[in-house]
Amino acid sequence: xxxxxxxxxxxxxxxxxxxxxxxxxxxxxxxxxxxxxxxxxxxxxxxxxxxxxxxxxxxxxxxxxxxxxxxxxxxxxxxxxxxxxxxxxxxxxxxxxxxxxxxxxxxxxxxxxxxxxxxxxxxxxxxxxxxxxxxxxxxxxxxxxxxxxxxxxxxxxxxxxxxxxxxxxxxxxxxxxxxxxxxxxxxxxxx
Amino acid sequence: xxxxxxxxxxxxxxxxxxxxxxxxxxxxxxxxxxxxxxxxxxxxxxxxxxxxxxxxxxxxxxxxxxxxxxxxxxxxxxxxxxxxxxxxxxxxxxxxxxxxxxxxxxxxxxxxxxxxxxxxxxxxxxxxxxxxxxxxxxxxxxxxxxxxxxxxxxxxxxxxxxxxxxxxxxxxxxxxxxxxxxxxxxxxxxx
Lengths: 191, 191
Prior knowledge:
Oligomer: homodimer
CATH class of chain A: Alpha Beta
Largest interface: A-B, 32 and 32 residues
Strand order of the largest sheet of chain A: 4-5-3-2-6-7-8-9
Number of helices of chain A: 6
CATH architecture of chain A: 3-Layer(aba) Sandwich
């Protein structure tokens, strides 16, 4: 998506070999006009799959998931909470999610009331790096007996292997901007 | 707002003397059609104040803030992160936020890049109870030299004193549904 690539180039900061921060429009301050364009594009790519629920994980996935749902005929959005293993009980589905940056493991959890076998789910995540969060969310859907129709990421860092891992697990993945590598402060995109 | 009151009565759960959970449409699963009605109503109440930024706090305020921004001519949304005091540095504004339910204190923090003296800010919070989160957010705006135009809460539990506290501090507060008390499993609203 050209609009998004240009925005990442223009407003991405702290660009290292593996890092680009997009706090000014995606992760801390949210550009809602851009979010509407992203939501529309996600619908263009995933709109014919009979999706009836959008699943994301707190915190920064929530805004884009909420706006995208407008284009998906107002399907409900569920966000998984990041919790300590100690807070799990039988009312929740839970899946471990490793954070490579922090070196920690948390549990993505969703109340059993809000995922079911009838759900045809689109997973939306703002950043796809190692694919840990998306794999955890897919795991939750499957525990409920539902269907993962696809995984939409806004920004993918392809060189960290997340999309390959998710595709190897059998999931359909499509990212709006795919970064192939970052070198000498310059960001390279697929296509 | 009658639509919201009816929804709280119909779908609120775990109703105790101080508690009502609205996880099925506001805090965990998000009813985006309802969010659009809430966003429109917030605009009706706060739309003439020259607001140029919406501020909320992670996680469950983000969805409603993002949708509300559509009605406010796509003003940017900033969400404060809940952090440990140890993660603060000079790049952030920080304000302590006490959680009465958890008995803990965290820090609401916003990067100094995303709040400034030119900001005319609407604070949106999903739940207004003791008013700690909203007071912390207002504190952040003032540290930046900006103006708090108003505080919009979706569900207010008036009997916990948050709105009175915020008004005593000089802030304009308007909540879409005001619960005056909860007794014998029944919820009473203002008006």
